[in-house]
Write a structure and sequence with these properties.
The protein has 211 residues and is of the alpha/beta class. It is built from 5 helices and 11 strands; from the N terminus they run ββαβββββαβαββαβα. A 7-stranded mixed β-sheet has the order 1-3-2-8-9-10-11, sandwiched between helices. A two-stranded antiparallel sheet has the order 4-5. Strand 8, helix 3 and strand 9 form a beta-alpha-beta unit.
Length: 211
């Protein structure tokens, strides 16, 4: 996976911030789709964050962070761990190129496929990550991360009961997996679909302030 550093959007002032956030959009979308939300969240945080939003590569006409799961002839889900690992390595190279201040807290996060990417990066990144935000996502290739434990990491995870893109059952499976790996998980669920509601934003701002 090749990432274009010239296609990055940033929110906030890197020099004056005390928190760095690396944010990943969802499948088929782009980084501009989250620019208004991230501006609003940072404003409510009194501009304490420097938010970096890269753009996923275009794969067959769709922006995608890693190969999507497919199904075999029996309907079994097939996940491409090698493809995901290639993407994680590319994100690590991106983080290195950003030359972020290591003294500041570092949070990764995203929506939908971006949330899935963030959760997997939390397990396999070479860099110290203090927290992870996963909105309407899932844990990809969970069996490949089964040997890892993340006791000191913090997660904010939110999902809607009405989500038609990534089901609530997928959220429950993800949560069950994560609860075996770490102790500090902040959860929020509600009667919403595949979206970021005002309530989700409110809870997210509260969580960031606490950590």
């Amino acid at each position: 996976m090749h990432l274009n550093n010239n296609d990055i959007i940033t929110v906030g002032n890197e020099k004056d911030s005390n928190l760095n956030i690396l944010w990943f959009h969802g499948y088929g979308s782009n980084n501009w789709s989250f620019e208004p939300i991230m501006k609003s969240i940072n404003m409510r945080l009194d501009e304490i964050a420097y938010i970096i939003m890269p753009n996923a590569p275009n794969v067959q006409g769709k922006n995608s962070w890693y190969p999507l799961p497919t199904k075999d002839e029996k309907g079994n889900l097939l996940e491409d761990y090698d493809g995901l690992k290639t993407s994680l390595d590319a994100i690590d190279k991106l983080i290195l190129s950003l030359s972020l201040n290591k003294e500041k807290r570092f949070i990764i996060g995203g929506f939908s496929q971006g949330a899935a990417l963030s959760l997997s990066l939390l397990f396999q990144s070479k860099y110290k990550i203090d927290g992870c935000i996963a909105l309407s996502g899932y844990m990809p290739c969970a069996k490949n991360f089964d040997q890892d434990d993340l006791d000191e990491r913090k997660i904010f995870i939110a999902h809607g009961f009405e989500d038609k893109a990534i089901s609530y059952q997928d959220y429950e499976k993800t949560l069950s997996f994560l609860e075996t790996k770490m102790a500090t998980i902040t959860k929020y669920t509600g009667n919403f679909g595949h979206s970021v509601t005002q309530d989700v934003s409110d809870k997210l701002v509260e969580w960031i302030r606490k950590i």
